From TrEMBL:
The chain crosses the membrane at residues 41-59, 71-97, 159-179, 241-265, 285-305. Pfam families: EamA. Residues 164-304 form the EamA domain. It comes from Roseomonas elaeocarpi. InterPro entries: EamA_dom, EmrE-like. The keyword Transferase does not apply. It comes from the Bacteria. Keywords: Membrane, Transmembrane, Transmembrane helix. This is EamA family transporter.
Amino acid sequence: MITSPFWLPATLGAAAFQSWRTALQQRLRGSMSVNAAGLVRYLYGAPTAAVLLAILLLVEGRGVPLPEELGWFFVWALLGGITQILGTNLLILSFGYRNFVVGTAYSKTDAMQGSVLGLLFLGEALRPLAWAGVAVSLVGVLVLSLTGKSTGLGGLLRAIGQPAALCGLGAGLGFAATGMFTKLTAATLPADTDALRRALTTLVAMNLLQSVMQGAWMLWREPAQLRAVFTGWRVALPVGVLSAMGSACWFTGFVLAPLGLVRAVGQVEILLTMTLGRFYLRESFTAAEVGGAVTVVAGVLLVLLGA
């Protein structure tokens, strides 16, 4: 159920921030491990999210909303934090097998996966035209995944079996699950709390939990890389800031609209990703990749018509 039209600009803003953040994060991968490149997203994102929440509370003259079910608030936030860590790490891994654009394209199956999770666990049923749009977008993703490979069912199965595809599909599932757990976390806050306060409160809690979890893991397994996260703060800080801005928009969209709709419209990120991949990371792409991206956009338009 859509509770406010603000979900659309929030989602478009999320896609813009996320594509920019992912491009910067891909460059970090050259000097940091997968875990380190992922940690900067939360470690530097947490204080950014806290500042955004503090500013909002000062402007509104209100306090931090307290969960009505504190135990469930932390359970859902913890699960959301874990699935986002897994999704982020798998996405970064996928970049190493193919390029930045294709790795992101695989992860965009989160729209279909999110629609299914929303239907099964949240009772969010989409309209037929919206489901059609999600399916068309998925076709576009498959076109991107098959670029440079044989076509047909056999070619599709071989492409999906590649490491980049498996990592990307896993990342999509992680991000779809994160959206679901975010909605469940925000739902434990008072119903009369505005969407942005609920989103930022959820984001601060989740980022703090993620920083502790992944930071503790790295202290145990990769202490040298943990030091690099702090010594390389000049390049890591922008990643965290953009991550917090993007997540604030994503979380606001999740609060205001069905998970499947938000994830489907968020697929416009692939266009921004292709632009950044071409002009920022100096990557090239083929006519087939462009065709796949156009198909994704066509699917998004159908989703909007069916919303």
